[in-house]
Amino acid sequence: VIFFSICWGGGGIRDPWPGGPVSEGARRAGWCRLWDQGTILAAEMARTLDSIDRQIIAELTKNARVSVAELARKVCLSRNAVRQRLEHLEHDGTIRGYTIMRGQTGPSSTRAVLFVYRNDRMRGVNVLAELRRIPEVVQCDLLSGEFDLLVMVEASSADHLQQVWQQISALPDVKDIVTSIILRSVIRSDPA
């Protein structure tokens, strides 16, 4: 559900951008304001995703690199209509960004999970800055509970993994590391 402001009054309907009448598409999508002789009364109204929005999201989930023209063909709309819908979905936060998901690693790569203990949980930002500089670090999450950080590492071999482990363990604010090598991925899904 997406929330946006709509203004109620008796003055008539205007485009959300001043000047000009409301398009039929904007009216159906709920993108309009009502004016009352210059006085705006705000209320919140929910706008749910329609079937075309859900179809656009499904197509982007399959392939985020699809062109607007191809996406328009698949959802049977004009390119401009799809572009406007994408802008609304992005503005509303339904689409927060476009990213890549790394494919399955090659047979010679080694992946590991490192649970990192820092000397000072609250002020250990130097560790985070250093981890960002290590290309083999593919993920880093702050944790509550026993461990401070969960660090995912991808290396070309076990020896390479050991070098990365030594590099991380040598950082001044790292107290200890518990390492688990990933044998096989059983479930891998796109994060929500």
Listing every helix as H and every strand as E from the N terminus to the C terminus, the arrangement reads EEHEEHHHEHEEHE
Low-confidence stretches: 1-46
Percentage of residues in helical conformation:
25-40%
Q: What gross morphology would you assign?
A: elongated
The largest beta-sheet arranges its strands as 6-7-5-8
Characterize the largest beta sheet: strand count, sense, and whether it forms a barrel.
Answer: 4 strands, antiparallel
Distance between the termini: 15 Å
Whole-number mean pLDDT: 75
Total strand segments: 8
Please tally the helical runs, counting DSSP H or I stretches of 4 or more residues: 6
Rg over C-alpha atoms, rounded to the nearest angstrom = 25 Å
Strand content: 25-35%
Structural class: alpha+beta
Describe this structure in words.
With 192 residues, this protein is of the alpha+beta class. 31% of the residues lie in helices and 25% in strands. The strands form three sheets. A four-stranded antiparallel sheet has the order 6-7-5-8. Strands 1-4 form a two-stranded antiparallel ribbon. A two-stranded antiparallel sheet has the order 2-3. Helix 3 packs across helix 4. The radius of gyration is 25 Å and the shape is elongated. The protein starts with a strand and ends in an 11-residue tail after the last strand.
